[in-house]
Design brief:
The protein has ten helices and eight strands. With 359 residues, it is an alpha+beta fold.
Length: 359
Amino acid sequence: MINASHASWGRRLLRGLGLGLAWLLLAFMTLWASAALYFDLSFPHLPALVTPVLYLAIIVALLYLAKTHLFGMGICLAGFLIVLFCWLSLKPSNDRQWQENDSQTPWAEIDGDRVTIHNFRNCNYRTELDYICEWLTKTVSLNQLRGIDVFVTYWGSPWIAHPIVSFQFGDDRHVATSIETRDQVGQGYSAIRGFFRQYELLYVFSDERDLVRLRTNYRKDEDVYLFHTTAGPAWSRLLFLQYMEQANKLRDHPKWYNAATDNCTTNIFTQMAATGKLPVGSSLHDWWILLNGRGPEILYRNGNFAGNLPFAELMKRANINPVARTLDDAPDFSSRIRLDRPGFDSLDSHDGQSPQPPN
């Protein structure tokens, strides 16, 4: 009798735990559905809050009428699936009223070693929000591509950052690449909205005096760090071509930005994976790709960034804000932010197919 009683109590406990976990999951699904309705699926000409409130009211009313746990769970699941279906049906577009610095879609023509980038951005800033943009055509030769540098921008939490990959051609020509949200007029970035279908994905190709100087000289409370990678010319060319290929795809088939699954860093690693090689010690499923503020330290410790210093000292000396603010739009901006920077004192050309540890 005692054993039977214990077994019955154990079954009830497991059933209770199972029900509790199931209801918790359904609660999160209902919360997500409500947020998706608020941000992406609200009725036109009505306050955005009306749609999720109406949805929750219907779910609560049906739950009140439900006779069993199973029926109640079915109601929540059905509501979630209906919202998910509608949400997935939303289509991204390249034809919206874009902010001026996001107004053009870049694309590239590749002819052997010659790559012509169209809509290469060149914005001249007076303030962060006051600028004039030119959209240029830039031609580079793949046989002049020497390597890759990475700018990492922090604006608050040390766990979250924005990377800018810069390809070096010849002695001092760079194509800086930033993967960003494409903002409409009057639309600013919101970390919460970034998890929904609020922004299209945009690859920006630009001069460092645009992409980098915007962050060092005009935006408030942004700290930018510059690292020289150990990537060789051969692998750098493969990655550069992946960027061009993806930009061309986005020109014809726009995509949604998503802060968790399709963001600035996940895109970089997706393009690197497409070359057949990832940085040493990394994979597409590493936790720090999402919490990317920790990325520089991990990449450095695995030999992907150059510099023979303890990481804390390297990080301190990698900060370019003080120098960048003295240069403004100097034509040699790129070379001067690299002057005496750790890892840039010996810019020898590596021959590896992928990032290689420093010698």
